[in-house]
Prior knowledge:
alpha+beta; four-stranded antiparallel β-sheet; single chain; 286 residues
Amino acid sequence: MIMRELYFEVSQGEDGLSARALLYRRGISGRTVMLLKNSGGITRNGEILRTVDKVYAKERITLRTPEEKCGFEPNPGLFAPIVYDDLDAVVFDKPAGLAVHPSAGHYSDTLGNYFAVRYPDSVFRAINRLDKDTTGLCLCAKNILSAPILPKSFDKTYYAVVGGKIEQAGVIDLPIARVSDSVIKRCVRSDGEPSVTRYKPILHENGLTLLEIKLETGRTHQIRVHFSHIGYPLSGDELYGGDRTKIKRQALHCGKISFTKPFSDETVSLESPFPEDMKSLFSTVS
């Protein structure tokens, strides 16, 4: 089954380029070009186009993705709302308790297993990976053409509830590394990977602060580690010292995302409302 066909015309500015250079200019990654080449998925006027061949203005180029299978065990007993869906991308509003990728202890109860139910002829490629108990918007590519393009324009905003009162916006620029005796836990350490978190307070109430957060890097547990390190652990985050009195998971939600649709100039902007357990921590959050 051909998952995706893309057609475009060579422009005057692209006249005389090699097919490989043309595709690079159009945002197709080197790995994807090789996959298309090996499957016979690059054609000109219905005939196979080699990547070394030159292309000329007004010629019609067609890209056809090879047949794919998800590869994960489909689990129809799972559910995650779909808030956006097109030929190239799907966005899920992931609930708490649902891991994104199959791993030890979670082989058939993840977002990937639900994706296999909905899109059995597409490989699961999550653009942003949310922790199992983090809620919110998760963008996934649906084919090899869109997978390397979507991250280039992808932007996301998180919301977190921390213990204590943070009164001013700020930046946490501290390296993060794996705790030496743990597979899961991370910590701030001088030999870690550069990690930058920007935040601003939105609301103070009940000894808690609701924060809006933007990440400049995407390290494992970055938000949770950074705020725990500066003395404001996320509410409910048992792993990093958060108070579980009022909420039983880390109070972290991916509430806004935006991205440019592949092969177009159209921007998609989506929002997810706060989950009920985070809303319940404040009297004025809707």
